[in-house]
């Protein structure tokens, strides 16, 4: 699976709109055998499934499932239905995510935002992957891919993003550890790609401003880069280049010096001041 996903079965979470929908469109355009859409938005999911079915002209089978990924039982039941009705996916894109731009203590909501953010962004990818990974491993003759959409926020601390940053840091740590476990156990047919982009203009981060040298990314650009990285089995994708720079700086500077460079000079700590969200 180095050039195309032709003939593959692709499952995408958070597929009703935004980036998830774009990944689904890319899978159809790439000749996927089947595309499986997961989302809790029934109306949006139906609209996306209809549009994809029309554009594929029957060449790709479209399957949609209404599922709330904060519900472990719902994940297990829906995964069972997918395996029975479609088969185990060859490509899993853990795309679903939420953000709450709140200060952790000063804008508290009795933990509801904290719980939901950790469940959707960090725990759901783990549970969903656990459902389909055994099937991927069992088919050692067939290339499989797992893509986990994390965030640069998981690498760089930022005010008004504490829980979101924590959820993405957890996702990064788990995703790359999973990659190493699969390599160590010689399950080389299954490759994991961890994606860490900065702000993307999907509406999810409306009001946020890009730091110095870090433009707001377009969804189309990110989807193209992620898709190519997924096919190649690239371990980690950082977007844009300034995210790589911040990672290097964090490794060589003291914490206070890093705060000054990234927060004051690059303006990262001011990016969420006008955040409104979708």
From TrEMBL:
Pfam families: adh_short
Keyword tags: Oxidoreductase
GO MF term set: oxidoreductase activity, acting on the CH-OH group of donors, NAD or NADP as acceptor
Source organism, top-level taxon: Bacteria
Family: Belongs to the short-chain dehydrogenases/reductases (SDR) family.
Protein name, as recorded: SDR family oxidoreductase
Organism: Orlajensenia flava
């Amino acid at each position: 699976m180095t050039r195309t996903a032709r003939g593959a079965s692709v499952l995408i979470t958070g597929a009703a709109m935004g980036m998830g929908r774009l990944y689904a469109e890319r899978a159809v355009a790439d000749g996927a055998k089947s595309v499986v859409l997961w989302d809790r938005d029934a109306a949006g999911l139906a609209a996306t499934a209809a549009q994809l079915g029309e554009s594929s002209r029957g060449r790709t089978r479209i399957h949609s499932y209404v599922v709330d990924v904060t519900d472990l039982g719902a994940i297990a039941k829906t995964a069972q239905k997918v395996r029975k009705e479609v088969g185990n996916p060859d490509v899993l894109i853990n795309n679903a995510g939420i953000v709450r731009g709140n200060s952790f203590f000063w804008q508290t909501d009795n933990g509801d935002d904290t719980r939901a953010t950790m469940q959707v962004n960090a725990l759901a990818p783990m549970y969903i992957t656990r459902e389909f990974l055994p099937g991927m491993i069992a088919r050692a003759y067939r290339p499989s891919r797992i893509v986990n959409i994390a965030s640069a926020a998981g690498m760089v601390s930022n005010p008004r993003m504490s829980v979101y940053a924590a959820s993405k840091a957890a996702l990064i740590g788990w995703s790359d550890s999973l990659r190493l476990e699969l390599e160590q156990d010689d399950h080389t047919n299954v490759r994991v790609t961890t994606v860490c982009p900065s702000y993307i203009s999907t509406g999810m981060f409306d009001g946020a401003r890009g730091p110095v040298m870090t433009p707001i990314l377009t969804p189309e650009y990110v989807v193209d880069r992620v898709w190519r990285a997924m096919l190649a089995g690239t371990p980690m994708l950082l977007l844009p280049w300034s995210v790589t720079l911040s990672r290097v700086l964090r490794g060589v500077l003291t914490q206070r010096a890093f705060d000054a460079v990234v927060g004051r000079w690059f303006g990262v700590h001011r990016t969420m001041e006008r955040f409104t969200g979708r």
